[in-house]
Design a protein that fits this description.
Helix content is 36%, strand content 21%. The chain is α+β, with helices and mostly antiparallel strands. The strands form three sheets. Strands 6-7-5-8 form a four-stranded antiparallel beta sheet. The chain has a two-stranded parallel sheet with strand order 1-2.
Length: 214
C-alpha cells in the first residue's frame, strides 16, 4: 500500500499509481497512461495541481485526487465509501457534483450516512439495517412510504421531551418560548399537529428506527 502522504509523491504520481501499481513504473514513457491521468485530473478539477505534493493539499482536494486515481484505472464501476465525510460544505457540494456527473458513463455505488448526498446523487436507493436490505427504490418511491406520516408540532420543552420518548423525531428547533418538532408517526401525534410533506431523511428514519406510540 502506497503512503500518499510522503512528500516524494506528487498529485500526478498518486493518480498514475492507478495505472502503474509499482513506483518504478512511473518513470516509463507511456503517453497513453499520462493522457488518462491528465483527463482524470481535469474531470475532478485538479489539473492545476499535478506537480503539487499530495501531502500539502486540503482534505477535499486529496479526496478528489484519490477519486481521479480510481478514474484513471478506467473501471466500469466505482465503489465510494463515505466519500464526503469530513469535508466542509463547499467541498461536499463540489465532490457531490463530480460524483453525480460520473454516473452518466459508469455504475457508481455510494455508501453513506449523509442523506443529503443521496438526495442529489442517487437514481436508485437501497436502505440497510443490521446488514439486511429493508427498502429499495427511487427517491419518490421511498418517500411515498412516509406520505401522511410526517407532522409539525409546536410544543413546550416539557411536551417536546414527552413526544420524543413516544415518537420518531427527525428535527427539533427552538421557536421562541416553544419547541418546533418534526415528528414521524402513522397517526396524528397531537390535535394541533400539522401534516408535512415527507423527505428522504424522514423515510430513512421511519424505516430504520422503531418508536412506541401510545
Amino acid at each position: 500500500q502506497h503512503n500518499y502522504y510522503n512528500f516524494e509523491f506528487s498529485v500526478q504520481d498518486v493518480v498514475m499509481m492507478g495505472r502503474a501499481p509499482h513506483k518504478r513504473a512511473l518513470d516509463r514513457d507511456n503517453a497513453d497512461d499520462f493522457r488518462l491521468v491528465a483527463e482524470a485530473l481535469e474531470l475532478v478539477g485538479m489539473s492545476g495541481f499535478a506537480r503539487r505534493s499530495f501531502s500539502t493539499l486540503s482534505g477535499g482536494e486529496q479526496q478528489r485526487v484519490i477519486l481521479a486515481r480510481a478514474l484513471a484505472q478506467q473501471t466500469p464501476c466505482l465503489i465510494l465509501d463515505e466519500p464526503t465525510a469530513g469535508l466542509d460544505p463547499k467541498e461536499r457540494v463540489r465532490f457531490r457534483n463530480i460524483i453525480s456527473s460520473l454516473g452518466k458513463d459508469r455504475i457508481v455505488l455510494l455508501s453513506t450516512h449523509i442523506v443529503s448526498d443521496i438526495e442529489y446523487i442517487a437514481d436508485r436507493i437501497l436502505i440497510m439495517k443490521n446488514g439486511e436490505l429493508i427498502q429499495e427504490g427511487t427517491e419518490a418511491e421511498i418517500t411515498e412510504k412516509v406520505k401522511g406520516h410526517v407532522w409539525k408540532c409546536i410544543v413546550s420543552e416539557k411536551e417536546a421531551e414527552c413526544l420524543g420518548q413516544r415518537f420518531i423525531v427527525s428535527n427539533m428547533r427552538s421557536n421562541g418560548k416553544n419547541v418546533e418538532l418534526r415528528v414521524i408517526s402513522e397517526k396524528q401525534p397531537m390535535r394541533e399537529a400539522e401534516l408535512l410533506e415527507g423527505t428522504l431523511e424522514d423515510a430513512y428514519l421511519y424505516e430504520t428506527q422503531s418508536a412506541e406510540e401510545t
